[in-house]
Amino acid sequence: MLIETRxxxxxxKSRGKEVEAVRxxxxxxxxxxxxxxxxxxxxxxTTTMRMLxxxxxxxxxxxxxxxxxxxxxxxxxxxxxxxxxxxGGTWGEVTAREELVMQGRLYGMSKKRAQARAAEVxxxxxxxxxxxxNVKTYSGGQKRRLDIALGIMHxxxxxxxxxxxxxxxxxxxxxxxxxxRGLRERGTAIFLTTHYLDEADALCxxxxxxxxxxIVAEGTPNELKKEVAGDVVAVGVPERASxxxxxxxAKDFVREVEAGEPDPATGIAVLRLYVDDGASALPExxxxxxAADLSPASIELHRPSLDDVFLKQTGxxxxxxx
Amino acid sequence: MKIVxxxxxxxxxxxxxxxxxxxxxxxxxxxxxxxxxxxxxLLDPMEGAGVPGFENGAMETFVPGLIIxxxxxxxxxxxxxxxxxxxxxxxxxMRVTPVSRVALMLGRTLSTVTTTVFQSLALVLxxxxxxxxxxxxxxxxxxxxxxxxxxxMLAAVSLGLAIILKSEDAMAPTxxxxxxPIMLISGIMLPMAMAPTxxxxxxxxxxxxxxxxxxxxxxxxxxxxxFVWQATAILGVLTVLLVWWATRKFARxxx
Lengths: 322, 255
Prior knowledge:
Chain B: Belongs to the ABC-2 integral membrane protein family. Chain B: This is Transport permease protein. Chain B: It comes from Glycomyces albidus. Chain B: Residues 23-253 form the ABC transmembrane type-2 domain. The complex is a heterodimer. By secondary structure, chain A is α/β, with parallel strands linked by helices. Chain A is 36% helix and 28% strand. Chain A is built from eleven helices and 14 strands. Chain A has helices at residues 45-52, 74-80, 96-106, 111-124, 140-151, 170-185, 197-203, 221-228, 241-249, 278-291, 306-314; strands at 3-14, 17-29, 34-38, 60-65, 68-69, 81-84, 158-162, 189-194, 206-211, 214-219, 231-237, 254-259, 269-275, 298-302. Chain B is mostly helical. The chains are: A alpha/beta, B mainly alpha.
């Protein structure tokens, strides 16, 4: 295990009030995997990551990172991890090469070694062309690549990435995903936070969903989705939503019904039915609606997404948060 | 030693950044130059007129004070650069490396001390060019030690404040509120010897009053003045305390 935490807590004092940002997190991250912490803004993702990367001290709880006790051997932890914050880590009138060499030297490399490693990293992140330009002239994607390059200068076992693709255009985002996969192939484990469902789904071997400072689900994306149900049927009803809901809930092939609020503009309420086999459930559902003289405005069948997982665990949609 | 190596690394990065923006170093000289040419001539009649505090001559009294003023303002504002670096994640990135926390602070502070020394020398040379200033170089170099302590201490305070305040908008009024009265009752503009007794008593509690007096005495070659050892002791103790305080802020910074 690269990370193991027990009851990790962080309480901030803000204007006399105590805010529990993280309330008892248990996590395990294995060697070589991409682990994602998925959750809405303010869920405690960044705070958890900042604790694990030695930037802030936990209020309570215990954590072992790369084999070292976080509370007693923060210095050893720092040697083995890399960290790329949301803000990046470079600015202004410095060049990529200068910053990379400096970073290597902060990790104790000799000047010569740092220069050689910087050249290597610049090459592999396709930054060679801009290596000697000031960072302030970089595009968002180039800057982000440099941020990651700085994080892996010392070849850490574990790399923390805080919201690695927030604010990137779709193309840079795709590049970033490739970089992350490439690092994983070379054996670096990655711990990332994200509020993008597709990112968590596409990139992570395993993930934990966090909400209000607590882990609400943990597993591989597939495991998590299977937990929800086989399929999700979303039925939009223009009226008598609660009647339709009771009707569906009475069916024994329907595992669970989630009723959404009616849309203020159209008056249509969406009911989400979790069923084992959506294809065979559809005709039955339509017949039942017909018999009750209810006509659906829309009907949609889909495989459960991570949003369904989040919705089921928290009663809210992650998409609505944005 | 790790801390020396780390301090050197942080220092050389900070110096490189300073040198890439030489405009700043010149801007910091502009204000003292204004004072030198637009205010100092007003003091000419003091020379030989028996006004208390001007026994060493007008320019010989004014220039050392001016240098302390430059050290005061130049260092007190270095926190602004740190706020930008905090916002851009530079400090956070460095705090995740095994670099010594003390070095993160010392490296930056020492780069400010270096630029202040160069600015002071430039100012002495400029003042000497006016032809009204007698320069006693061994005194100037001893005075630079006081200037260095002043810059070192204030740079540490400014960096610590930057970490607490985290915003330029809060930083500017805070620094001004702190530095203006300190400057006024340190006798930089006019010697405190001219002040009424009550104001002199207030000045006795201002560490920079001793810095200014010691600088004047050293500049004039009065190496055995009491102010010299008093300033060294007061600034020395304060510097140690404030550097320790700022280092703690650096180690715990929540950016």
